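Here we describe the complex-level prediction in full. Unlike the single-chain runs in Section 2.1, the two entities below were treated as one system.
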Amino acid sequence: METVDSEQLDWHKLRTVGGLDTNVLPVAVQDADTREMIMVAYLSREALAESARTGRAVFYSTSRHQLHRKGETSGDVLDVVRLSANCDLNSVLMEVRKQGTGACHERDPDGDHYTSCFFRELLPIGEDQGER
Amino acid sequence: METVDSEQLDWHKLRTVGGLDTNVLPVAVQDADTREMIMVAYLSREALAESARTGRAVFYSTSRHQLHRKGETSGDVLDVVRLSANCDLNSVLMEVRKQGTGACHERDPDGDHYTSCFFRELLPIGEDQGER
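The structure predicted for the assembly as a whole is:
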Protein backbone atom coordinates (compact mmCIF):
# COMPACT_ATOMS: atom_id res chain seq x y z
CA MET A 1 0.00 0.00 0.00
CA GLU A 2 1.28 3.44 -0.83
CA THR A 3 1.78 5.72 2.12
CA VAL A 4 1.46 9.43 2.69
CA ASP A 5 2.10 11.60 5.72
CA SER A 6 -0.15 14.21 7.24
CA GLU A 7 1.84 17.17 5.97
CA GLN A 8 1.22 16.06 2.39
CA LEU A 9 -2.52 16.49 2.89
CA ASP A 10 -4.31 19.45 1.34
CA TRP A 11 -5.25 21.22 4.55
CA HIS A 12 -6.62 24.24 2.65
CA LYS A 13 -9.22 22.35 0.64
CA LEU A 14 -12.20 23.20 2.84
CA ARG A 15 -11.36 26.92 2.80
CA THR A 16 -11.92 26.80 -0.95
CA VAL A 17 -15.06 24.72 -0.58
CA GLY A 18 -16.44 27.09 2.05
CA GLY A 19 -15.97 30.04 -0.29
CA LEU A 20 -17.78 28.57 -3.29
CA ASP A 21 -20.85 30.30 -4.71
CA THR A 22 -22.71 27.01 -4.45
CA ASN A 23 -23.62 25.45 -1.10
CA VAL A 24 -22.42 21.88 -0.77
CA LEU A 25 -22.33 19.12 1.82
CA PRO A 26 -19.85 16.28 2.18
CA VAL A 27 -21.06 12.86 1.07
CA ALA A 28 -19.45 9.58 2.09
CA VAL A 29 -19.83 7.11 -0.77
CA GLN A 30 -19.91 3.43 0.19
CA ASP A 31 -20.14 0.30 -1.94
CA ALA A 32 -23.47 -1.26 -0.91
CA ASP A 33 -22.23 -4.75 -1.80
CA THR A 34 -18.65 -4.90 -0.50
CA ARG A 35 -19.21 -2.13 2.13
CA GLU A 36 -15.91 -0.62 0.98
CA MET A 37 -15.69 3.15 1.51
CA ILE A 38 -15.16 4.55 -1.97
CA MET A 39 -14.71 8.30 -1.55
CA VAL A 40 -15.73 11.50 0.14
CA ALA A 41 -17.26 13.90 -2.37
CA TYR A 42 -19.58 16.92 -2.29
CA LEU A 43 -23.24 17.36 -3.12
CA SER A 44 -25.02 20.54 -4.14
CA ARG A 45 -28.82 20.64 -4.07
CA GLU A 46 -28.81 20.05 -7.82
CA ALA A 47 -26.36 17.14 -7.60
CA LEU A 48 -28.47 15.52 -4.89
CA ALA A 49 -31.70 16.00 -6.80
CA GLU A 50 -30.21 14.64 -10.02
CA SER A 51 -28.71 11.66 -8.19
CA ALA A 52 -32.12 10.85 -6.74
CA ARG A 53 -33.99 11.44 -9.99
CA THR A 54 -31.68 9.46 -12.27
CA GLY A 55 -30.50 6.84 -9.76
CA ARG A 56 -26.89 7.56 -10.73
CA ALA A 57 -24.35 9.33 -8.53
CA VAL A 58 -23.87 12.98 -9.44
CA PHE A 59 -21.55 15.13 -7.35
CA TYR A 60 -20.56 18.77 -7.35
CA SER A 61 -16.96 19.23 -8.42
CA THR A 62 -15.47 21.76 -6.02
CA SER A 63 -12.50 22.32 -8.37
CA ARG A 64 -14.38 22.61 -11.66
CA HIS A 65 -17.44 24.28 -10.10
CA GLN A 66 -19.91 22.17 -11.98
CA LEU A 67 -21.85 18.95 -11.68
CA HIS A 68 -19.78 15.80 -11.98
CA ARG A 69 -21.79 12.96 -13.40
CA LYS A 70 -19.70 10.08 -12.07
CA GLY A 71 -18.54 7.74 -14.80
CA GLU A 72 -19.51 10.04 -17.68
CA THR A 73 -16.02 9.76 -19.14
CA SER A 74 -14.62 6.68 -17.35
CA GLY A 75 -17.72 4.51 -17.60
CA ASP A 76 -17.46 3.82 -13.89
CA VAL A 77 -21.05 4.84 -13.18
CA LEU A 78 -22.31 4.40 -9.63
CA ASP A 79 -25.96 3.48 -9.16
CA VAL A 80 -27.54 4.98 -6.06
CA VAL A 81 -28.94 2.37 -3.69
CA ARG A 82 -29.74 4.51 -0.66
CA LEU A 83 -29.25 8.01 0.70
CA SER A 84 -29.06 8.77 4.41
CA ALA A 85 -28.50 11.95 6.41
CA ASN A 86 -26.64 12.18 9.70
CA CYS A 87 -27.99 13.22 13.09
CA ASP A 88 -26.93 16.86 12.64
CA LEU A 89 -28.22 17.01 9.05
CA ASN A 90 -24.90 18.22 7.69
CA SER A 91 -23.49 15.20 5.89
CA VAL A 92 -24.82 12.47 3.61
CA LEU A 93 -24.13 8.78 3.18
CA MET A 94 -24.64 7.49 -0.35
CA GLU A 95 -24.67 3.72 -0.76
CA VAL A 96 -23.97 2.75 -4.34
CA ARG A 97 -23.58 -0.18 -6.69
CA LYS A 98 -20.76 -0.06 -9.23
CA GLN A 99 -21.64 -0.52 -12.91
CA GLY A 100 -17.95 -0.91 -13.73
CA THR A 101 -15.10 -2.38 -11.76
CA GLY A 102 -13.31 0.79 -10.65
CA ALA A 103 -14.29 3.98 -8.89
CA CYS A 104 -11.19 6.18 -8.57
CA HIS A 105 -9.60 8.04 -11.49
CA GLU A 106 -6.19 6.74 -10.42
CA ARG A 107 -4.91 3.34 -11.41
CA ASP A 108 -3.27 0.58 -9.39
CA PRO A 109 0.07 -0.98 -10.39
CA ASP A 110 -1.80 -3.41 -12.69
CA GLY A 111 -3.31 -0.50 -14.60
CA ASP A 112 -6.83 -0.98 -13.23
CA HIS A 113 -8.76 1.88 -11.70
CA TYR A 114 -8.76 1.59 -7.93
CA THR A 115 -12.05 0.41 -6.43
CA SER A 116 -11.66 3.07 -3.72
CA CYS A 117 -9.97 6.47 -3.57
CA PHE A 118 -8.57 5.50 -0.14
CA PHE A 119 -5.66 3.45 -1.44
CA ARG A 120 -2.94 5.24 0.51
CA GLU A 121 -2.17 4.51 4.12
CA LEU A 122 -1.93 7.70 6.14
CA LEU A 123 1.00 7.87 8.50
CA PRO A 124 0.51 10.92 10.68
CA ILE A 125 3.65 12.70 11.73
CA GLY A 126 4.03 13.82 15.29
CA GLU A 127 2.95 17.33 15.60
CA ASP A 128 0.79 16.84 18.57
CA GLN A 129 1.56 20.14 20.19
CA GLY A 130 -1.69 20.36 22.07
CA GLU A 131 -4.73 22.32 21.16
CA ARG A 132 -4.19 25.53 19.25
CA MET B 1 -36.34 4.51 9.66
CA GLU B 2 -36.78 8.22 10.24
CA THR B 3 -36.78 10.33 7.12
CA VAL B 4 -35.65 13.82 6.24
CA ASP B 5 -35.80 15.83 3.04
CA SER B 6 -33.03 17.74 1.36
CA GLU B 7 -34.30 21.16 2.37
CA GLN B 8 -33.91 20.22 6.02
CA LEU B 9 -30.16 19.75 5.53
CA ASP B 10 -27.74 22.36 6.86
CA TRP B 11 -26.45 23.62 3.52
CA HIS B 12 -24.41 26.37 5.20
CA LYS B 13 -22.28 24.10 7.37
CA LEU B 14 -19.22 24.10 5.13
CA ARG B 15 -19.19 27.89 4.89
CA THR B 16 -18.65 27.95 8.63
CA VAL B 17 -16.05 25.19 8.46
CA GLY B 18 -14.20 26.99 5.67
CA GLY B 19 -13.96 30.13 7.76
CA LEU B 20 -12.51 28.52 10.88
CA ASP B 21 -9.12 29.62 12.20
CA THR B 22 -8.05 25.98 12.21
CA ASN B 23 -7.54 24.01 9.00
CA VAL B 24 -9.53 20.78 8.94
CA LEU B 25 -10.26 17.92 6.58
CA PRO B 26 -13.33 15.70 6.43
CA VAL B 27 -12.91 12.20 7.82
CA ALA B 28 -15.23 9.30 7.04
CA VAL B 29 -15.42 7.03 10.09
CA GLN B 30 -16.16 3.37 9.43
CA ASP B 31 -16.61 0.44 11.79
CA ALA B 32 -13.74 -1.90 10.92
CA ASP B 33 -15.72 -4.95 12.07
CA THR B 34 -19.24 -4.38 10.75
CA ARG B 35 -18.09 -2.03 7.92
CA GLU B 36 -20.96 0.28 8.93
CA MET B 37 -20.34 3.94 8.10
CA ILE B 38 -20.51 5.69 11.44
CA MET B 39 -20.12 9.40 10.72
CA VAL B 40 -18.41 12.15 8.80
CA ALA B 41 -16.34 14.32 11.13
CA TYR B 42 -13.41 16.74 10.83
CA LEU B 43 -9.73 16.40 11.65
CA SER B 44 -7.28 19.17 12.43
CA ARG B 45 -3.57 18.41 12.38
CA GLU B 46 -3.67 18.11 16.16
CA ALA B 47 -6.71 15.83 16.15
CA LEU B 48 -5.06 13.57 13.60
CA ALA B 49 -1.78 13.46 15.49
CA GLU B 50 -3.49 12.73 18.80
CA SER B 51 -5.66 10.03 17.20
CA ALA B 52 -2.54 8.36 15.86
CA ARG B 53 -0.53 8.76 19.06
CA THR B 54 -3.21 7.55 21.46
CA GLY B 55 -4.98 5.07 19.17
CA ARG B 56 -8.32 6.66 20.04
CA ALA B 57 -10.41 8.77 17.70
CA VAL B 58 -10.05 12.50 18.31
CA PHE B 59 -11.86 14.95 16.03
CA TYR B 60 -12.01 18.71 15.74
CA SER B 61 -15.37 20.06 16.74
CA THR B 62 -16.27 22.66 14.14
CA SER B 63 -19.02 24.04 16.39
CA ARG B 64 -17.10 24.16 19.67
CA HIS B 65 -13.77 25.00 18.02
CA GLN B 66 -11.81 22.51 20.07
CA LEU B 67 -10.66 18.92 20.05
CA HIS B 68 -13.38 16.37 20.58
CA ARG B 69 -12.06 13.25 22.22
CA LYS B 70 -14.76 10.83 21.10
CA GLY B 71 -16.37 9.03 24.02
CA GLU B 72 -14.92 11.29 26.69
CA THR B 73 -18.36 11.89 28.14
CA SER B 74 -20.43 9.08 26.58
CA GLY B 75 -17.90 6.29 27.04
CA ASP B 76 -18.34 5.39 23.38
CA VAL B 77 -14.61 5.52 22.65
CA LEU B 78 -13.52 4.52 19.14
CA ASP B 79 -10.17 2.77 18.78
CA VAL B 80 -8.31 3.64 15.60
CA VAL B 81 -7.56 0.60 13.46
CA ARG B 82 -6.33 2.25 10.26
CA LEU B 83 -6.03 5.66 8.64
CA SER B 84 -6.08 6.17 4.88
CA ALA B 85 -5.91 9.21 2.64
CA ASN B 86 -7.70 9.60 -0.68
CA CYS B 87 -6.19 10.05 -4.14
CA ASP B 88 -6.39 13.86 -3.99
CA LEU B 89 -5.09 13.99 -0.42
CA ASN B 90 -8.03 16.01 0.82
CA SER B 91 -10.05 13.54 2.86
CA VAL B 92 -9.36 10.78 5.35
CA LEU B 93 -10.86 7.38 6.06
CA MET B 94 -10.63 6.28 9.69
CA GLU B 95 -11.44 2.66 10.38
CA VAL B 96 -12.33 2.15 14.03
CA ARG B 97 -13.35 -0.42 16.59
CA LYS B 98 -16.03 0.51 19.08
CA GLN B 99 -15.25 0.15 22.79
CA GLY B 100 -18.92 0.66 23.60
CA THR B 101 -22.06 -0.26 21.72
CA GLY B 102 -23.07 3.13 20.36
CA ALA B 103 -21.44 5.88 18.38
CA CYS B 104 -23.95 8.69 17.86
CA HIS B 105 -25.06 11.08 20.59
CA GLU B 106 -28.68 10.50 19.61
CA ARG B 107 -30.69 7.54 20.84
CA ASP B 108 -32.91 5.09 19.02
CA PRO B 109 -36.51 4.38 20.11
CA ASP B 110 -35.20 1.79 22.61
CA GLY B 111 -33.07 4.44 24.30
CA ASP B 112 -29.76 3.07 23.01
CA HIS B 113 -27.26 5.31 21.27
CA TYR B 114 -27.36 4.73 17.54
CA THR B 115 -24.43 2.72 16.17
CA SER B 116 -24.24 5.18 13.26
CA CYS B 117 -25.13 8.85 12.83
CA PHE B 118 -26.74 7.97 9.47
CA PHE B 119 -30.01 6.72 10.91
CA ARG B 120 -32.28 8.93 8.78
CA GLU B 121 -33.22 8.10 5.25
CA LEU B 122 -32.76 11.11 2.99
CA LEU B 123 -35.62 11.75 0.59
CA PRO B 124 -34.45 14.42 -1.82
CA ILE B 125 -37.12 16.77 -3.06
CA GLY B 126 -37.29 17.64 -6.69
CA GLU B 127 -35.42 20.80 -7.29
CA ASP B 128 -33.44 19.59 -10.19
CA GLN B 129 -33.42 22.83 -12.09
CA GLY B 130 -30.23 22.13 -13.95
CA GLU B 131 -26.80 23.45 -13.19
CA ARG B 132 -26.60 26.87 -11.62
